[in-house]
């Protein structure tokens, strides 16, 4: 499924790439760090076919977005989410994977009029309790001189369980994107984000929430427990995806699409 790439140009900041397909209520799909909006290549067509207007965007310094922004991470991405929804004519249900889930929480807390629902996939909405040493080691691993090679080697581990049939091709696209001038630097800066702001904003979120978590997500010692903690904090619900790691929307797209569409039907019923 292809469409023309558009850009939201922000004065003094840079341009964000996005595309829009379909007609109906707005859904904004946001990938996590080190990823492309193509991560939703399986989920987006199902949502469009179900009668939604689906926008997918690249993070700052990723994909077709520019790579000279002054800031990266949760807070910056939350600002971009709000501006994209305004540009597209919201409100919107925001689907955020990994870091983008934390950004979506911030946007929902600060702009409740723009965010009508949240789907948080493999969500980082609080800092993992891995300790200072492991955090510094990860940042060193993702530093510019070797960031691309390190991410290429690390990415398959995040796809624990079933990999998409086109995984190798998709990983090559991710790596090629990161090898362009300025993009490895932007990625490295993005990896330094912290999620304390997202955690602090959790009590202020009023939007209905679905948490989607892969049962084998290697980013969490106990994926189900983390999903249930996030859902409890947001008074939401949980959908677990078997044989999936950090990217259940790409690894188990049919199961995730079913859960998301059920959640969206519930939202529509609440508004009726």
Which strand order do you get reading across the main beta sheet?
A: 1-2-4-3-5-6-7-8
Helix content: 40-55%
CATH class: Alpha Beta
Write out the CATH superfamily name: Alpha/Beta hydrolase fold, catalytic domain
Structural summary, described in words:
The protein has 272 residues and is α/β, with parallel strands linked by helices. It has one domain: Rossmann fold, CATH 3.40.50. Helix content is 43%, strand content 17%. The chain has helices at 43-49, 74-88, 99-110, 131-141, 147-158, 167-178, 183-190, 196-201, 223-233, 248-251, 253-271, and strands at 6-10, 14-21, 26-30, 53-57, 92-97, 115-121, 209-214, 237-241. An eight-stranded mixed beta sheet has the order 1-2-4-3-5-6-7-8, with helices on both faces. Helix 2 (74-88) crosses helix 3 (99-110). The chain is globular, with a radius of gyration of 17 Å. The mean pLDDT is 93.
List keywords for this structure.
alpha/beta; 8 strands; 17% strand; globular; single chain; Rossmann fold; 272 residues
How is the topology of this model organized?
Blueprint: E1 6-10, E2 14-21, E3 26-30, H1 43-49, E4 53-57, H2 74-88, E5 92-97, H3 99-110, E6 115-121, H4 131-141, H5 147-158, H6 167-178, H7 183-190, H8 196-201, E7 209-214, H9 223-233, E8 237-241, H10 248-251, H11 253-271
Parallel strand pairs: 3-4, 3-5, 5-6, 6-7, 7-8
Antiparallel strand pairs: 1-2, 2-4
Helix pairs in contact: 2-3, 5-6
Summarize the structure.
The protein has 272 residues and is an alpha/beta fold. It contains eleven helices and eight strands. The two termini are 31 Å apart.
